């Protein structure tokens, strides 16, 4: 390869239209258009609204990314696009755009896994991940602990949520507290004025249950918040919103950090990378820095934790650099793509990447 690959990354799995350009491990541009304000009216993501918003936003977001990076599409060496997991209609907008661009530009296209991309984005900030590493993936749809032996090829799930994802729990509790969607950032903000020890909310699956040592459960916590709020309302007392937010957040963070540390100890691995929207949480970041002093903890800045195109381009560049084969035409959208598939399940035949570099 004569130069570091210039990779265009496209993300449309949920409500963010993300288009980014990465050269090797350098982020040149990261344009994001969000339909979250439209979604907030419904209190959650409506798939049809998301798909239409991606269609409407895509061209302008692509133009913004190329202008910001100071490159033309003809300079792009490869294209990476989220092919799953996510909302089928939303994914299809990105996949169709990526395949169209790949055909027009005669460049390879990689259909990639959104979850692996949340892990790979950290290479843009802290350099290539020392492998093996443990990843704590905490987003609106997923909560997992992963062993990363090769972020382009070999990802093994160690534990996952049995019910709600961590971000989903934040969003549901925020709704109970009358906060807008998505609730995570709002809980994070108001919790700073609250007393986390004011209420002792339960920590799910924290007993010494060997079977679920690295799994998560947040539905009991959510129910406990519902019950507590109901009892408080019945007693006629005012709801101490900041205390509820802080105590709830503390329970989630305590479980996430405890289990991430347990995974590192079990696997004998000292690098922990944290990704996904909930990785933006300020309390999670500070508790990790307090409790994980013996580990190399890598958390990208908040804007790279929530969905964006940079994460997809970052994984795409790693795939190109490691000579992984691109996807064959007809990538498709795979709403339940398992995390063990770093690239699209219908990915191309084994073989070297086209020798265009
Ligand atoms: O990764 P992401 O942008 O989309 C998915 O792939 O799901 O994650 C979105 C989730 C939402 O549930 C949102 O409430 C949560 O991440 N989130 C946060 C924070 N920022 C975003 N949760 C807690 N604290 C935050 N600061
Ligand atoms: Zn995500």
List the helices and strands and how they pair.
Layout: E1 6-11, E2 16-23, E3 26-34, H1 36-40, H2 47-69, E4 78-84, H3 88-105, E5 109-113, H4 114-120, H5 123-126, E6 133-138, E7 143-150, E8 154-160, H6 166-176, H7 184-191, H8 219-234, H9 241-267, E9 271-275, H10 282-291, E10 296-298, H11 302-305, H12 309-321
Parallel strand pairs: 1-4, 4-5, 6-9, 9-10
Antiparallel strand pairs: 1-2, 2-3, 6-7, 7-8
Helix pairs in contact: 2-3, 4-12, 6-8, 6-9, 7-9, 9-10
The structure holds 5'-O-[(R)-(carboxyoxy)(hydroxy)phosphoryl]adenosine and zinc ion.
Overview of the structural elements:
- The protein has 357 residues and is an alpha/beta fold.
- 41% of the residues lie in helices and 18% in strands.
- It has helices at residues 36-40, 47-69, 88-105, 114-120, 123-126, 166-176, 184-191, 219-234, 241-267, 282-291, 302-305, 309-321; strands spanning 6-11, 16-23, 26-34, 78-84, 109-113, 133-138, 143-150, 154-160, 271-275, 296-298.
- Strand 4 (78-84), helix 3 and strand 5 (109-113) form a beta-alpha-beta unit.
- Helix 2 (47-69) runs parallel beside helix 3 (88-105) and helix 6 (166-176) runs parallel beside helix 8.
- Mean pLDDT is 94; it is low at 347-357.
- Bound molecules: 5'-O-[(R)-(carboxyoxy)(hydroxy)phosphoryl]adenosine and zinc ion (ZN).
């Amino acid at each position: 390869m004569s130069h570091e690959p210039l990779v265009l990354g496209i993300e449309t799995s949920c409500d963010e239209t993300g288009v980014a350009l990465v050269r090797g491990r350098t982020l040149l541009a990261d344009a994001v258009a969000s339909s979250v304000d439209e979604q907030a009216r419904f209190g959650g993501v409506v798939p049809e609204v998301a798909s239409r918003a991606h269609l409407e936003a895509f061209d302008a977001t692509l133009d913004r990314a190329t202008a910001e990076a100071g490159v033309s599409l003809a300079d792009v060496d490869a294209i990476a696009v989220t092919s799953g997991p996510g909302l089928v209609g939303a994914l299809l907008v990105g996949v169709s755009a990526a395949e169209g661009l790949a055909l027009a530009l005669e460049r390879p296209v990689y259909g990639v896994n959104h979850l692996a991309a949340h892990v790979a984005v950290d290479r843009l900030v802290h350099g290539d991940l020392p492998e093996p590493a443990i990843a704590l993936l905490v987003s609106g749809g997923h909560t997992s602990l992963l062993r990363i032996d090769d972020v382009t090829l070999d990802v093994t799930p160690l534990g996952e949520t049995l019910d709600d994802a961590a971000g989903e729990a934040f969003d549901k509790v925020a709704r109970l507290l009358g906060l807008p969607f998505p609730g995570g950032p709002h809980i994070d903000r108001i919790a700073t004025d609250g007393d986390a020890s004011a209420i002792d909310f339960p920590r799910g699956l924290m007993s010494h249950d060997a079977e679920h040592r690295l799994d998560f459960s947040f539905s009991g916590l959510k129910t406990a918040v519902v019950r507590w709020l109901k009892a408080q309302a019945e007693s006629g007392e005012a709801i101490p919103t900041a205390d509820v937010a802080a105590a709830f957040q503390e329970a989630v963070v305590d479980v996430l950090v405890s289990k991430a540390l347990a995974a590192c100890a079990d696997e004998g691995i000292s690098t922990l990378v944290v990704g996904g929207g909930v990785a933006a949480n300020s309390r999670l970041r500070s508790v990790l820095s307090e409790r994980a002093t013996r580990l190399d903890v890598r958390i990208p800045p908040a804007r790279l934790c929530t969905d964006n195109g940079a994460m997809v381009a970052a994984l795409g560049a790693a795939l190109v650099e490691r000579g992984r084969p691109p996807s064959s035409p007809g990538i498709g959208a795979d709403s339940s793509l398992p995390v063990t598939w770093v690239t699209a399940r219908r990915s191309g035949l084994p073989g070297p990447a086209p020798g265009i570099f």
